[in-house]
Amino acid sequence: MAMPAVDVRPARKGPLRLDPIPEILRPLIRAYLLGYASAVAPRLLARWLSTFLAAWFGLRLLHSYEGRAYTETVPPKEGSAHNSEPQTVKFAGRTMDLTLFAVTRAVDVLVGDLWARHKARRLASNGWSKAERFLSKFVDPLVFAASSGLVMWAWFYHPSRLPRSYNKWITSAASVDLRLIEALRRCHSGEFQYGKETGQAHLLQGMCVDYEWPLAWGDPAVVIPIPCQMVHMSSGPSCEYHAASRFFRAWKWSMATYLPLTLALALRNPSRKALRRAIISSCRSSSFLATFITLFYYGVCLSRTRVGPRLPGGTTIERRQSMDSGICVGTGCLLCGWSIMIETESRRKDIALFVAPRALATVLPRRYSLDKEWRERLVFAASTAVVFTCVAENPDRVRGVFGKLLKMVLSK
């Protein structure tokens, strides 16, 4: 008697397995998938390639403009001929912000598409866990918190890595005496040291005169560390009162910016409901920005006054130096971004995708060698092609106001 044949082939695994489908229907399903792929793939490739070429030559056109900030005159080297002339060296990087914006959007599209497919499979199998639900909800706040932390660190210690207008806006929102910022920068670089005469006392003693404080407060060789009251400026010695006053002042400053804008938008279709929505939106956005500023400054106070001195060895000169050399600012950078939770979920993703390219710019050079410009062009063209192809195929995948704008423009 012949033994029945046993199929020892391993079962197909992955998202395209056909095991749950009756065997008689599998050839039809395979034929449909192959036909769909053969019909869709050429269309996707054509759209991606056409956008890639347009973006490549478009950025090349922008690169043809020579900005003064990206040219540098190098004097002749020592020992060169007497008739040698200075050389003009050209740099690339003028369009870096645009490229990073495109990269951020492309990554958001690709990761979002992969996550949506993963979520659909998990929901179909009733395996969607609480951890995955939590991650899906908090990924935008996490992106914003990390990005804003990098931006604030760069504003404090490496302001040249930020665009000038962005730098100026943060300085205006921070509303702080720049002499204090400079003292913490010099503390970070090692010029301003506690317990040593380094000739830096004049920097903060000018503040002491202006705010009528003892001159000794500004001398790091005498008073260790800088009193927190100097960080508070005119708000007194209490860290908590300083945080509350910071919130109130920042909220008023933000309302003066947000309220006219939201009211102007509400006047397009004036109604009592639109007016109420505009006021609520302005209050929420102002509270978000005020909380951002408050958390940053209170994070500084937490590390250098409230928590730091209570840690083992927290009152030694070395620990005080390390606190003011970067730990206090780093604590503020870690805390401030979580103020995004005040905003609505739709606003969180827009703000996160707005700040992320600027955070990337702080870890990449603002200028680079001209012979590497083709790399930026390649990255920009590929990223733009991904975003535009996705808008044509699945418009809802490009998130936020930018996605709606692209959908409106490309659908006409």
Could you explain the architecture of this structure?
The structure is a single chain. The chain is mainly α. The chain is 65% helix and 3% strand. It is globular and about 85 Å long. Helix 1 packs across helix 12, helix 2 (96-124) packs across helix 12 (373-393) and helix 3 crosses helix 11 (345-363). The protein contains 13 helices and 3 strands; from the N terminus they run αββααααααααααβαα. The longest helix has 38 residues, at 26-63. The chain has a domain at 177-347. InterPro entries: Tmem135 (IPR026749).
SSE topology sketch:
Layout: H1 26-63, E1 71-74, E2 87-92, H2 96-124, H3 130-157, H4 164-174, H5 178-189, H6 201-211, H7 228-232, H8 239-266, H9 272-306, H10 317-336, H11 345-363, E3 368-369, H12 373-393, H13 400-410
Antiparallel strand pairs: 1-2, 2-3
Helix pairs in contact: 1-12, 2-11, 2-12, 3-10, 3-11, 5-10, 8-9, 9-10
Q: How many strand elements?
A: 3
Overall form: globular
Strand content: under 5%
Helix amount: 55-70%
Strand order of the largest sheet: 1-2-3
Q: pLDDT under 50 segments (min length 5)?
A: 1-12
Q: Using only CA atoms, what is the Rg?
A: 28 Å
Order of helices and strands: HEEHHHHHHHHHHEHH
Question: End-to-end distance, in Å?
Answer: 72 Å
Supply the helix-strand structural class.
mainly alpha
Helical run tally: 13
Oligomer: single chain
What's the average pLDDT? Answer: 83
Biggest sheet overview = 3 strands, antiparallel
InterPro entries: Tmem135 (IPR026749)
Protein name: Integral membrane protein
